[in-house]
Amino acid sequence: xxxxxxxxxxxxxxxxxxxxxxxxxxxxxxxxxxxxxxxxxxxxxxxxxxxxxxxxxxxxxxxxxxxxxxxxxxxxxxxxxxxxxxxxxxxxxxxxxxxxxxxxxxxxxxxxxxxxxxxxxxxxxxxxxxxxxxxxxxxxxxxxxxxxxxxxxxxxxxxxxxxxxxxxxxxxxxxxxxxxxxxxxxxxxxxxxxxxxxxxxxxxxxxxxxxxxxxxxxxxxxxxxxxxxxxxxxxxxxxxxxxxxxxxxxxxxxxxxxxxxxxxxxxxxxxxxxxxxxxxxxxxxxxxxxxxxxxxxxxxxxxxxxxxxxxxxxxxxxxxxxxxxxxxxxxxxxxxxxxxxxxxxxxxxxxxxxxxxxxxxxxxxxxxxxxxxxxxxxxxxxxxxxxxxxxxxxxx
Length: 396
Ligand SMILES: C[S@@+](CC[C@H](N)C(=O)[O-])C[C@H]1O[C@@H](n2cnc3c(N)ncnc32)[C@H](O)[C@@H]1O
Prior knowledge:
The structure is a single chain. The protein has 396 residues and is α/β, with parallel strands linked by helices. 38% of the residues lie in helices and 21% in strands. The protein is built from twelve helices and 16 strands. Strand 1 and strand 2 form a beta hairpin. Helix 1 (39-62) crosses helix 2 (90-100), helix 1 runs antiparallel to helix 9 and helix 10 (309-325) packs across helix 12.
């Protein structure tokens, strides 16, 4: 907890007639500044921490070298006025995770940020946290220039690399995303700034930038759509474009903390099904079981409902799966492949749902005998009609 008497709030004048916004905080004992810690940023960081914990452990145990690349590293520090605490940004989270998993010696961190003051601040935060600066390559460049130089290097020196791409706007070139994903064992956590895109979508000078974001001009047809359909269309189009080269792509919707309106989508882009499944678990575990942050409509954990959301999710999924596959035989791996990034269900919901189908709706063939654990190669035969258990004759 920080001593509130040592904390200073600095404001910036926003547009006319609007009240000034908080720009940053300073604290007498720190030689760096901090940004306001908003609720959705906190969730983003918790998810990043949880996911990297698994990614670093798995990839670090199998490889002699792994990389973390942060294209928009930020200033490194946040102040949370709800609990009066100081928290760290994405580059520090990544390093602390590697240290806690004892994989630090195998990791290298590439931190890019185009603002001189933010990068200087970030260095001070890293020093404050006693992190080893020799494990870091700092660059102060525009993201798109920097990342393409890094990719030139990575293509010649391949190693598993996690890319954090977290801009303020939409300055993210689609062809660069495609290039990243063409390199084996890469994955991306990308902030798709929907709110920003929507603000500029009818602004002619932004057209070239949006074409670059999408890699084509198909987005233009959504300009005139009504709000909900426009959002759905633009997000689906971006996902479909990503799916042309990325096997698994799931987007987590993040609302503004105090408005029922989308702020941004966090896209997880990976070629690895396990990664996709672990990221969904990570998100749900940091967000009361849900895979979207609903801002003011977030469920209240104090108002517990009798039937847990998981139970109702599994019930509806069970029938959905049977309706889709009745009369067919599927491998579990094929079924998981189809559901994991196209539905909000976690892998454990998918497993629970197909277990509930066993007997009445489907028959399992386990590759390993005498087990009920579902393995990727297990096959499931979905009946055309539910097999009803013969009813016991009643004597009365
Ligand atoms: C959302 S913040 C990053 C926050 C950070 N990822 C975290 O979670 O702590 C975006 C950062 O990108 C920087 N930035 C904006 N445009 C940039 C560009 N074209 N290239 C590199 N950095 C840029 C801004 O100065 C800002 O610090």
